[in-house]
Amino acid sequence: ACDACHALVHDGPGGWHTRVAPAGSEYPGRTEWIPPPHIDPEQRPRVNHRHHLGDLLSAALAHYRARRETELREHRRRWMREPSGDANGDAP
């Protein structure tokens, strides 16, 4: 993290806390940033992806490919069910 972000980590009011994400979490071993209650009352940990853009790109591509495959399967299913026309394109 940058110097400005490091300055946000402190024990006083409004300070952020950090911890290492545990094994079994979405990003094990990465630094989790825990916001102060005035930013997030539930203080849910977050991971800064700024220096790990490849992870985000991989996840986005996997999501896109899965969605595209679902769309292609649906298209093929509809296409196989529709009656085919004769050579002129007319339906039987």
Short description:
With 92 residues, the protein is an alpha+beta fold.
How are the SSEs placed, and which strands pair?
Elements lengths: L2 H4 L10 E4 L10 E4 L11 E2 L5 H29 L11
Antiparallel strand pairs: 1-2, 2-3
Summarize the amount of helix as a percent range: 25-40%
Overall shape: it is elongated
Order of helices and strands: HEEEH
State the end-to-end CA separation: 67 Å
What is the alpha-carbon Rg in Å?
25 Å
Average pLDDT number: 86
Which regions are unreliable across 5 or more consecutive residues at pLDDT < 50?
A: none
Number of beta strands: 3
Number of domains: 2
Structural class by helix and strand composition = alpha+beta
Strand neighbour order, sheet with most strands: 1-2-3
- Tell me the β content: 5-15%
Number of helices: 2
Biggest pleated sheet: 3 strands, antiparallel
Task: Walk me through the structure.
- The longest helix is centred in the C-terminal third of the chain and has 29 residues, at about 55-80.
- Helix content is about 35%, strand content about 10%.
- It has helices at about 5, 55-80, and strands at about 15-20, 30-35, 45.
- With about 90 residues, it is an alpha+beta fold.
- The termini are far apart.
- It contains 2 helices and 3 strands.
- Strands 1-2-3 form a 3-stranded antiparallel beta sheet, with no helix packed on it.
Features:
single chain; 92 residues; alpha+beta; 2 domains; three-stranded antiparallel β-sheet; 2 helices; 3 strands; elongated
